[in-house]
């Protein structure tokens, strides 16, 4: 059975907090040095700025999502309108759905088993994982340091110019200033 190409589109953001994409990475063996097994990556559709949160279990996901949305809305004095994710239970639970409804956030999900519909987040995760593996391999550090490597990879991503941003960095686009 071949997969049918996804030809649909999700809303294109016009301002900073309008659209966010997110994905939870599958459990990473071995546990990190601090006992984490997962990471939640949140990408801003407008600036391509990336946030990463490390979790011990999937149930922590809703806490980080709510906290992130509240913080971003407060920082920008603007509302998140669209949240794009896959159909994972960590995103489709009653608690989060009620939160999205109370905030008037349109939760858009990809169809099951079609990662191409959430390409922005999936590709973002893959890019981060590849960079962190490279860092670990070249540093000679033990695999239990994957959390630190992921964090460093995201730091680099936020300071790397993007062709789709006319070679601005996600940092400068998000914060409206040159990177540190």
Question: How do the strands and helices of this protein lay out in sequence?
Answer:
Elements: E1 19-25, E2 38-44, E3 50-55, H1 61-76, E4 82-85, H2 94-103, E5 106-109, H3 119-139, H4 146-158, H5 170-175
Parallel strand pairs: 1-4, 4-5
Antiparallel strand pairs: 1-2, 2-3
CATH topology: Nucleotidyltransferase, domain 5
Radius of gyration, in angstroms, nearest whole number: 16 Å
Structural class: alpha/beta
Overall domain count: 1
Q: Count of helices? A: 5
**Proportion of strand residues:** 15-25%
CATH architecture: 2-Layer Sandwich
Biggest sheet descriptor: 5 strands, mixed
Number of strands: 5
Strand order in the sheet with the most strands = 3-2-1-4-5
Poorly predicted runs are: 1-7
Elements, N to C (H/E): EEEHEHEHHH
Rounded average pLDDT: 88
* Mass-distribution shape: globular
InterPro entries: Integrase_cat-core, Retrotran_Ty1/copia-like, RNaseH-like_sf, RNaseH_sf
GO molecular function: DNA-directed DNA polymerase activity; endonuclease activity; hydrolase activity; metal ion binding; RNA binding; RNA-directed DNA polymerase activity
GO cellular component, one term: nucleus
Catalytic activity: DNA(n) + a 2'-deoxyribonucleoside 5'-triphosphate = DNA(n+1) + diphosphate
